[in-house]
Amino acid sequence: MQKLNIFAPLAYFHGGSINGYNAQTAPIFMPNTVGGYMPGPRDYPGNTSQPNSSKTIIAALEHGYVVVSAGLRGRTIIEDSKYVGKAPAFIVDMKAAIRFIRHNSELLPGNVDRIITNGTSAGGATSALTGTSGNEPFFDKYLQELGAADESDAIFAASCYCPIHNLEHADSAYEWQFNGINDWSKLNYGTGKIETGKLNDEQIVLSKELKHQFIDYLNSLQLQDNNNQKLSLDDNGQGSFLNYVKNFIIQSAQKALDSNQTVDSNSGVIIENDVVKDINWSKYLSFITRMKSTPAFDDLKMDNPEPNLFGTEKIDSQHFTKFAQEHSKVPSKLADQKLVQAINPLQYLDNKDSAKYWRIRHGASDRDTSFAIPIILATSLKNTGHKVDFAMPWDTPHSGDYDLRDLFTWIDKVCAEG
Ligand code: DHB
Predict the structure, then answer these.
(1) Which of 34, 121, 303 is the best mutation target for the ligand 1 pocket, counting ligand atoms within 8 Å of the beta carbon and taking the most?
(2) Whole-angstrom Cα distance, residue 176 to residue 26?
(3) 37, 118, 178, 292, best to mutate for ligand 1 pocket (most atoms within 8 Å of CB)
(4) One digit per residue, pLDDT tens: the chain, 418 residues?
(5) In what residue span(s) does the BD-FAE-like domain sit (predicted)?
């Protein structure tokens, strides 16, 4: 059983208020500490162990929010010789925590009609899934097994930094973006060293196949831009969706210029008189570089976090795409495809208990997943009537919580509006 921590500003214990909020009306902010789909322990102000969101918790309390930090299981936890933190444990624990605070709302500070989740990367995916999957029946069985309260687990708003989600389409999206760039480089968090490599001949062939899978997937979504124009890709992976993606980067560079940030002259961004006119896409991709080899997530030796997330009580790692299972280099099984879909936030776009308000950020130099992935999330949410604030901050790598002042301004606005 995971535990949770609940914090309220001291003023609320004496009947005071901060920024117009009091013990009854304050939004309930729920940052998580999940990264890499590893366990995300409950957290507290002043915590210095890794991972932690201590600075975020302190800033949120100073701003007048009630903070609930729930411990969430992750893919490496073993109890009684069983893996107990494989998918969907992280989201089940999150929902159990939300049900707990709702069940005890008379006793606890904060407004349970204003719950806002927040997280980065796998934690951003956790926030996104919490946002779309409110009260979805798929999770009932797991929540009952855990003894979760019989309450709603719907939330008001979700804040997601670089969410690593839509895993079953992330490999193909990655190759749609990086096909043709065969050198990769990434930081090994364990050793602190940069590792580099080159796709081999087989991976180059797989990259092309995956790229074409993405074209079919994207076209099947029938996404629309803000002017209700259809977003699609041709057989070469070009077309209105690519232009739409490029435009987010162009807007990002323009915003950087407007606030006197430097835009690197090697980035492929074409500037005339302080106006971004266009972007040389292949130059931009070479500038940010490919991080992952092929397939990027469901790798053929199952060394990545994602196959490990889809293990079972007895099996540590499993492939989660048919493609990787067919090309696997190790003895392997295919994970239950219903479970893989069930932890994809996009599965629940038509859910009437999904969060109404969304703030999604994905750095313009983030290469942990394809730009297509957060853009599909933001656009699908918009197309299904959600209120979405999406941007790709310039020169920003895979990271989160870098603009808390703006995040809190957004939370205050949507809380007042909703
Ligand atoms: C995270 C980053 C990744 O590149 C990934 O594949 C999974 C998770 C993370 O930082 O949480």
Answers:
(1) 121
(2) 44
(3) 37
(4) 799 999 999 999 999 999 999 999 999 999 999 999 999 999 999 999 999 999 999 999 999 999 999 999 999 999 999 999 999 999 999 999 999 999 999 999 999 999 999 999 999 999 999 999 999 999 999 999 999 999 999 999 999 999 999 999 999 999 999 999 999 999 987 888 999 999 999 999 999 999 999 999 999 999 999 999 999 999 999 999 999 999 999 999 999 999 999 999 999 999 999 999 999 999 999 999 999 999 999 999 999 999 999 999 999 999 999 999 999 999 999 999 999 999 999 999 999 999 999 999 999 999 999 999 999 999 999 999 999 999 999 999 999 999 999 999 999 999 999 9
(5) 53-151
The enclosing domain of 185 has a CATH number of 3.40.50.1820
368 C-alpha vs ligand 1 centroid, how far in Å? 7
Q: Where in the sequence is the domain holding 204, given as residue range(s)?
A: 169-339
**What is the identity of the amino acid at 266?**
N
Same domain, 310 and 358: no
> Domain ends where: 270, 304, 339?
339
Long-range contacts of 197-200 (CB under 8 A, 24+ apart): 197/293, 199/293, 199/294
| Ligand 1 lined by 122 (C-beta under 6 Å) | yes
Rounded Cα distance between 192 and 180, Å, is 28
Beta bridge partners of 279: 269
User: Which residue's alpha carbon is nearest to atom 8 within ligand 1?
Assistant: 36
CB 378, CB 358: distance < 8 Å: yes
Number of folded domains in the chain?
2
The protein residue whose alpha carbon is closest to atom 7 in ligand 1 is 36
Q: Would the CB of 117 count as within 6 Å of ligand 1? A: no
Ligand 1 close to Cβ of residue 121 (< 6 A): yes
Number of CB atoms found within 10 A of residue 223's CB: 20
Q: What is the DSSP string of 227-263?
A: TS-B----TTS-SHHHHHHHHHHHHHHHHHHHTT---
* Ligand 1 contact, 368 CB (< 6 A): yes
CA of 38 to the centre of ligand 1 (A): 10
Which of 339, 354, 374 finishes a domain?
A: 339
Does the beta carbon of 168 lie inside 6 Å of ligand 1? Answer: no
